[in-house]
Amino acid sequence: MERSMRVVVFLLFGFLTLATISFYLCNGDLNIVCSERERRALLRFKQDLKDPSNRLFSWDGEGDCCTWTGVHCDNLTGHVIKLQLQNPYDIFHLSDDEFGAYERSTLGGEIDPSLLELKHLNYLDLSQNDFGGIHIPKFFGSIGSLRYLNLSEAGFEGMIPHQLGNLSNLHYLSLGGSYPYSEAKLLTVENLQWLSSLSSLQHLEMSLVNLSKVTDWLQVTNMLPSLLELHLSYCELEVIPPLSYVNFTSLSILDLSFNHFNSFIPTWFFSLSHLVSLKLRSCGFYGPIPNALRNMTSLRVFDVSRNGLNSSIPDSLFSLNGLVSLNLRDNLGFQGPIPRALQNLTGLRVLELDGINFNSTLPDWLYNFSSLERLSLEDNNFQGTISSAIGKMISLTYLDLSNNDLEGGLPRSIGKMISLTYLLLSNNDLQGGLPRSIGKMISLTYLDLLNNDLEGGLPRSIGNLCNLKELSLSGNKFSGKLSGFLESLFGCIESSLISLQLGRNQLSGQFLDQLIHLKNLASLGLEGNSISGPIPVSIGRLSSLRSLYIYDNQLNGTIPESLGQLSKLEGLYISNNSFEGVVSEAHFANLKRLYSLYASSNSLVMKVGSDWIPPFQLKYISLSSWQIGPQFPAWLRTQKDCEILDLSGTRISDTIPNWFWNLSSQIGYLNLSHNQIYGEIPSSVKFGGNYLSGLDLSNNFFSGSISLFLCHKTDKPNSLKFLDLTGNLLSGDIPDCWMNWQALKVVKLGNNNLTGDLPSSIGSLSSLQSLHLRNNSLFGELPTSLQNCKELSTIDLSGNKFSGNIPTWIGKSLSSLIVLVFRANKFKGDIPRELCHLYYLQILDLAHNQLSGTIPRCFNNFSAMATKQNSSRAIFYSFPFGGLIETAVLMTKGREFEYGNTLTLVTSMDLSSNSLSGEIPEELTSLLGLLSLNLSENHLTGKIPEKIGDMGSLESLDFSGNQLTGVIPGSMSSLSFLSHLNLAYNNLTGRIPTSTQLQSFDASNFIGNKLCGLPLTENCTGGQDSIPNHGGVGLHKDDDGFEMSFFVSMALGFVVGFWGIFGPLLYSKSWRDAYFGFLDRMKDKLCGDEPMANKSVGTCVMSMKGDGIHKSRKRDLFPEILRDKAVARLNELGKIVILSYEDPGQKNLIVTYVDLCKFIFIGAFALVILVVILALALVILMVGFNACLDFSSSAEKPFSAADAGGLRKPEFSLSLLFQLTGCNVAVEGKAWGGCEDDINNSESWEVKRMVLEIGEHKMGFA
């Protein structure tokens, strides 16, 4: 018994002792300190480190090293077992404010071998630092106690040492290289056999390590039996070797994303039944997803985004009920609508299906995913509206429906999504205003509604979004005063908002002081509105502002000096306003962080001292249209980081100093055009260490040769893509050194004094797309090597002395040509038929050469000329740091035009001033989209093609100076867009067709022919008069006899008509009563309920227009009450068509008439009885009518059915136009079949339309 008690007491004592020790260990009360040797080793390690933020300030020479930052010791022995020296900021989760702190917190320098003194070290983390490209120390492989080693994102470079294979106790190894978008180089490995020694390894992270030379990476990793996680993304892998046996069956996470396998997905992936996460993003996989996917029952994360997978999404995917995250985005090969079976995956928290092009509406069942936290359906061509059921998705924190075709408004139920932090709906067609319920989305931090059709203003409730950091509403139709918008942003949003983007809306008003309430605003975008007034002085109080976008507005006044107090400002964009005044050093006083300054197209004057040293280092400088000269700005010498420099049109009248050519090793685009800079271009432009991609020195006074500039040798290939030396005084030959500039896309050397031939090395420019050499003195034949420039879309060689035949290879090799201009050279011979292969050609100018032969009939193959061009997109050549809009100079309508933004809308063919012969090919009339056609000054014969009227797009047509015969085709009068026509000096005969267009041209455009009719003064007689008019019938009479008979019949008709009708009314009261009683009864019938369309006076109707006879403006010719009621009734019945008029309040009815028109007018409205029964009056009437018919052929501007509002085109048309002092009346109608005799006999007709013309204005009555 006693013995048992001793045992119990002993055990109890031991238990209490252990408990006491454990208590002190847990509370750290044991006085355990690190060893002196380890403390000294740590101090030596620190000594070689760079610590800009003094993170290791606690590592001093005294005290216990176990208490130092990042140092952990064993609680029993005091030995250092863990060093956690990773950057405290995670590069993958940085806010804008934290990035600077991240950079300051990085450790660097050298790593001292004193770490080997830490014999018990089992954990070492140096990740996310910057050791400046040093190699991973080999001695790391001798720290045998290590179980955890993390060197990822630490700025190491070079070969990974194989000595790491000695770390046999290692469980965790992370050697990931630098983040893929950083400038650091990758770590590399050529052999991975050392990994096979790490039998305990569970976690291997080698992402961003270059494994391109490792062929057995899969076999090696497959032999790691304990491996649970394998991360090999961004490793430059290209082949997945065959795997006969899968050994790493315990693998739970596999990430091979961002490699280049370009194959089917290997089936052995799907035998890894323990896999929880499989990420194969952007690997170049194609084909279907294997059905073996259903075997992966443990899978929770599946990512095969950004591949080329095709066929439909397999049903096996929808059997993975445990799936939490599914990412299939950017696989355009997937077919069909969004699968309905997706709703079976009820456990989904993340669903990303972007860029699959489902092309359907958003399905209703999608809104039932109440547990979904992230939904991304960007760029899928979804149509329809956003359902109000979206309010049921209350767990969503991220929603992206941008880049679709969604329309309608935002549903009010969106306010129920109180967990949503990101809402992305940009680039849709959403309409209406923002619902007030948006103010209930209290978690919202990012709201992007860019590029929709939203309108109105902002609801005041938006001010309640206390967490909102970024608000993007640019590219909508929001309107109203800027002040109203800013008032809606009062509230707790004032302190949270960091980015406010309201650009490209319809905002107006002034730039107000209200902005200062947004005290944390870092980015403000108001570009592309109609905001006016000056920049307020209070702008300087936005102390957090980094970017200010106010370009393309109507801002004016001077730039306030307070702008220079924005010490955090990085980007200032104020171009295309009306700012004026002086900009001095004070405006830039504290802009130490400024790197982007775009302020072109203002009237600003820069006045700084010649010794001024700016506080900033600018990367992007655009000061076009400022007054900076006359001296070259000396302050540029300090800008060592400049990448873009635009000083065009800045009134610099100086030479370029030598220091400028060696200015920067980074410059990519230089524009000094439109100044008065003189001197020679130096032999070596050393910009950018050959990074220079765009050089524009056009329109200056540079002189001398360009040989030294083009022919200097460099160590690296030149990257210049755009060279513009147009409009200088350059002379000498074009050097044969183009093989040094093979990246060139655009070469512009026009308007200089260059001589010689075009060197053969020009053919080495295989990327050349645009070549402009116009207005020089170049000569010789075109080099055959030019056919190697197969990308050419524009060639302009006009104004030179090139000779020989036009090469046939142009049509064979340069099939992408859009603009071909050989104007004003000495080319001879036939136009090669091979040009007909240039299907994309829109502009062909071969004028002023010595070409002969006929016009090729195959020109109808120019497909781009055969169809009307509707695309308003400019021809744009892009290059690093910028781009260029193609231009072309054309002669059309007798003038020279330069086209740029609208060049794609222009189609033109100019073959003038050659020696071409033969007929004009009928095939040319099939070029229905051609705007300008010039065949003048040749030797063309034959007739003008009858189908010339089919070319309805023509605006300019010139056939002058040829030997064309025959009549002008009547179809030409249908060219309604024609604004320039010249048919002078041919052998054309007959009457000029009648049309609104043709009679509007000057007579000089028809002289030198045998033509008659307006606009010529020659009257048509005899055979000439038989020339048919377009859409009409030719009538002929003797003009002289007509003139006499017409005036005699007019006088007799007036006397007989007036006294025969009005005489009895004046002298007999009973006649007057009967007459006006009859008018009242006819008025009642005319204005009664029966539609006028059912009234008919005759069976034949005709269009009559001719020269005027008489005009009256007297209201008393017609009873006022009848006139007013008739007009009102006609308006009720929709029978009055008003095309235009000068005075809406004018009540006078202005009518030009003769007795015949008066008879028609009065008969049509039942105003008179047919009282003219006397034979004499009837004879006079017929004489007057026949005379009027003759006037149809000389009408200057007849009024067509199309002009009159879309009436059907007459089958048989005659014209009688009354013209006196710009006031015309025309009656328009149609002659029915079998009525020609009635017309000629002036017996039966019906008024269909009367048009009153006053100057250019017309008023129609139906």
UniProtKB/TrEMBL annotation:
<keyword id="KW-0732">Signal</keyword>
<dbReference type="InterPro" id="IPR003591">
    <property type="entry name" value="Leu-rich_rpt_typical-subtyp"/>
</dbReference>
<keyword id="KW-1003">Cell membrane</keyword>
<keyword id="KW-0433">Leucine-rich repeat</keyword>
<dbReference type="Pfam" id="PF00560">
    <property type="entry name" value="LRR_1"/>
</dbReference>
<protein>
    <recommendedName>
        <fullName>Leucine-rich repeat-containing N-terminal plant-type domain-containing protein</fullName>
    </recommendedName>
</protein>
<keyword id="KW-0325">Glycoprotein</keyword>
<feature type="domain" description="Leucine-rich repeat-containing N-terminal plant-type">
    <location>
        <begin position="37"/>
        <end position="74"/>
    </location>
</feature>
<keyword id="KW-0812">Transmembrane</keyword>
<dbReference type="InterPro" id="IPR013210">
    <property type="entry name" value="LRR_N_plant-typ"/>
</dbReference>
<dbReference type="InterPro" id="IPR032675">
    <property type="entry name" value="LRR_dom_sf"/>
</dbReference>
<comment type="similarity">
    <text>Belongs to the RLP family.</text>
</comment>
<dbReference type="InterPro" id="IPR055414">
    <property type="entry name" value="LRR_R13L4/SHOC2-like"/>
</dbReference>
<dbReference type="Pfam" id="PF13855">
    <property type="entry name" value="LRR_8"/>
</dbReference>
<keyword id="KW-0677">Repeat</keyword>
<dbReference type="InterPro" id="IPR046956">
    <property type="entry name" value="RLP23-like"/>
</dbReference>
<feature type="transmembrane region" description="Helical">
    <location>
        <begin position="1159"/>
        <end position="1185"/>
    </location>
</feature>
<dbReference type="Pfam" id="PF23598">
    <property type="entry name" value="LRR_14"/>
</dbReference>
<keyword id="KW-0472">Membrane</keyword>
<keyword id="KW-1133">Transmembrane helix</keyword>
<keyword id="KW-0675">Receptor</keyword>
<dbReference type="Pfam" id="PF08263">
    <property type="entry name" value="LRRNT_2"/>
</dbReference>
<feature type="transmembrane region" description="Helical">
    <location>
        <begin position="1046"/>
        <end position="1067"/>
    </location>
</feature>
<feature type="domain" description="Disease resistance R13L4/SHOC-2-like LRR">
    <location>
        <begin position="366"/>
        <end position="475"/>
    </location>
</feature>
<dbReference type="GO" id="GO:0005886">
    <property type="term" value="C:plasma membrane"/>
</dbReference>
<dbReference type="InterPro" id="IPR001611">
    <property type="entry name" value="Leu-rich_rpt"/>
</dbReference>
